[in-house]
Write a structure and sequence with these properties.
Blueprint lengths: L6 E8 L3 H10 L1 E2 L15 E5 L3 E6 L10 E9 L2 E9 L2 H28 L4 H36 L1 E4 L2
Helix pairs in contact: 2-3
Length: 166
């Protein structure tokens, strides 16, 4: 099913055991830094927390991108290795902003549509809110997918894993 809002679910399987997969990820995860991160260069690829059974991380980037995925995952032991279930979502604040923004523009689209029906003719200005809404959705989706794919590749390398169907 196609989601209107960015979301990605991935399942990795690795020959590593749970402890080794957790250790490898922990080496690449720094504690969240709420300071001036533009002036420091960290060697880790992610920031967040890794526990015995799960993790909550986001990729460390040295540029601004509000659509950076918030990544949660859990380790599931297998007889020969580990399964890592990963979910990537928008930050809650960005998601709320996106929903409010789309609601306002959606209202403008509905108003424009009602106006077109009442007048019986289409003016180019009535299509602008719809185009703006579609462009915004496209931007959010593309920016999220670009960052989600980068994070997926890094996690696959860290876990020395294969991606399987979710």
């Amino acid at each position: 099913m196609i989601s209107l809002l960015p979301y990605k679910q991935i399942v990795f399987e690795s020959q590593l055991n749970v402890a080794e997969a957790r250790r490898r990820l922990a080496l690449e995860v720094a504690k969240r830094n709420w300071g001036l991160q533009w002036f420091e260069r960290r060697t880790e690829k992610f920031e967040g927390t890794v526990s015995e059974t799960d993790f909550q991380i986001s990729r460390i980037i040295h540029y601004r991108n509000s659509f950076l995925p918030m990544i949660t995952g859990r380790f599931i032991p297998l007889s020969q290795g580990v399964r890592i279930e990963v979910k990537m979502k928008l930050h809650v604040g960005v998601l709320l902003f996106t929903l409010v923004w789309l609601g306002i523009v959606g209202f403008l689209v509905a108003t424009g549509s009602a106006q077109v029906m009442a007048m019986g003719k289409v003016e180019i200005l009535t299509a602008v809110p719809l185009l703006v809404m579609l462009l915004f959705l496209l931007t959010v989706t593309i920016m999220f997918k670009l960052e989600a794919n980068k994070a997926s590749k890094l996690l696959r390398e860290i876990f020395v894993a294969q991606e399987i169907a979710a």
